[in-house]
């Protein structure tokens, strides 16, 4: 039986996974605190230790390094030249560790909540109210993500999700959050040019916006609307209600959109309600949690956020066309 020759031994290269032994952390903490505060007694008070324990930790660190970090005198202590040179490295490491920890997990004593919502819900309803949430709950770091960044936030990092639909999604429990109705809106310029919307024949002559996913709303507003005639105004189709709302506010097209998403624009005068009938939507907004993580497992920050959402509807009720 032939054996392959053994390769000639060369110089050994340290594995990339082997880490040079680190200095003892308790000694580094005692050294940095003593250097910063100027005395072992002050460092002991900050660290919650006895003065002798601080001195012992510094001596262990000095033994590890093989150098003296402090010159000890009868009633004072001061850094040696090597102790002075080492200090920026240790402080920089502590600062980097502190900044990285805060960036990932938030400041100590603060709560953190990640909520995923759809773009239209975020832009037209939620985001304009977030300053109020921050003012009421400054201790909660709130992260709102939309489908635009869906792949950037792993599912396990999302605490709550708000979706619009029929309430059935595999792998989630869904609790009804908002039921909505659609309202016909247009810009003040549209109202001046066309007047209030009176019926199907009137609608046929107006420029209007269709929103993908809400294709049946105009037909449900006027069930006997005839097919568009050759002389009818062309329509524009957009894929989000936020786009339709912004487009209607900036031009002469009218839009039939969820009242919730038009509410702020109507109240600040960018849009006006053109017809006094609301069309109930067949879908609603639901609060989603992963199966097995019901209200009993919701974090205090999550419960606070949900209660705040509910209060928004009470404090800012829906528009009442014709009321």
Account of the protein in words:
The strands form 3 sheets. Strands 7, 8, 9, 10, 11 and 12 form a 6-stranded mixed beta sheet that branches. Helix 5 (119-126) runs parallel beside helix 11. This protein folds into 3 domains: 25-105, Arc Repressor Mutant, subunit A; 111-119 and 139-177 and 289-315, no CATH class; 181-280, D-Maltodextrin-Binding Protein, domain 2 (3-Layer(aba) Sandwich), CATH 3.40.190.10. The chain has helices at residues 25-37, 40-47, 51-65, 81-105, 119-126, 130-136, 188-194, 200-204, 217-221, 241-250, 259-267, 300-315, and strands at residues 70-72, 77-79, 111-116, 140-145, 160-165, 172-178, 181-186, 208-211, 235-238, 254-258, 272-273, 279-280, 284-290. It is α/β, with parallel strands linked by helices. The protein contains 12 helices and 13 strands. It is 40% helix and 19% strand.
Unreliable segments of 5+ consecutive residues: 1-16
Q: In the CATH scheme, what's the topology name of the largest domain?
A: D-Maltodextrin-Binding Protein, domain 2
Write the CATH homologous superfamily of the largest domain: Periplasmic binding protein-like II
CATH architecture of the largest domain: 3-Layer(aba) Sandwich
Helix content: 25-40%
Q: Note the quaternary state here.
A: single chain
In terms of structural class, how would the helical and strand content be classed? alpha/beta
Q: How much is the radius of gyration in Å?
A: 33 Å
Main sheet record: 6 strands, mixed
Q: Just give the CATH class of the largest domain.
A: Alpha Beta
End-to-end separation: 99 Å
| Mean pLDDT figure | 85
Which band does the percent of strand residues land in? Answer: 15-25%
DSSP summary: helix tally: 12
The count of strands amounts to: 13
CA-based shape:
elongated
List SSEs in N-to-C order.
Answer: HHHEEHEHHEEEEHHEHEHEHEEEH
């Amino acid at each position: 039986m032939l054996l392959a020759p053994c390769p000639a031994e060369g110089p050994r290269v340290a594995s990339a996974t082997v880490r040079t032994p680190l200095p003892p952390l308790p000694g580094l903490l005692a050294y940095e605190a003593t250097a910063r505060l100027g005395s072992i007694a002050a460092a002991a008070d900050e660290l919650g230790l006895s003065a002798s324990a601080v001195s012992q930790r510094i001596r262990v660190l000095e033994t590890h390094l093989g150098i003296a970090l402090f010159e000890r005198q009868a009633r004072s202590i001061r850094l040696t030249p090597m102790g002075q040179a080492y200090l920026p490295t240790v402080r920089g490491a502590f600062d980097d560790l502190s900044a990285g920890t805060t960036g990932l997990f938030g400041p100590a004593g603060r709560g953190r909540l990640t909520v995923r919502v759809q773009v239209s819900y975020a832009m037209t309803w939620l985001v304009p109210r977030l300053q109020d949430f921050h003012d009421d709950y400054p201790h909660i770091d709130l992260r709102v993500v939309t489908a635009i960044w869906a792949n950037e936030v792993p599912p396990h990092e999302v605490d709550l999700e708000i979706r619009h639909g029929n309430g059935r999604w595999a792998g989630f429990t869904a609790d009804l959050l908002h039921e909505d109705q659609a309202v016909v809106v247009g810009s003040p310029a549209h109202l001046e040019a066309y007047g209030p919307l009176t019926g199907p024949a009137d609608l046929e002559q107006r420029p209007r916006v269709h929103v993908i996913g809400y294709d049946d709303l105009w037909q449900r507003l006027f069930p006997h609307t005839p097919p568009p005639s050759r002389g009818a105004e062309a329509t524009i189709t957009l894929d989000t209600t936020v786009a339709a709302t912004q487009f209607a506010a900036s031009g002469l097209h009218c839009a039939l959109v969820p009242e919730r998403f038009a509410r702020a624009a109507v109240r600040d005068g960018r849009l006006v309600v053109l017809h006094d009938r609301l069309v109930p939507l067949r879908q609603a907004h639901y609060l989603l949690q992963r199966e097995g993580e019901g209200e009993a497992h919701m974090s205090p920050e999550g419960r606070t956020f949900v209660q705040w959402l509910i209060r928004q509807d009470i404090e800012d009720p829906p528009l009442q066309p014709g009321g």
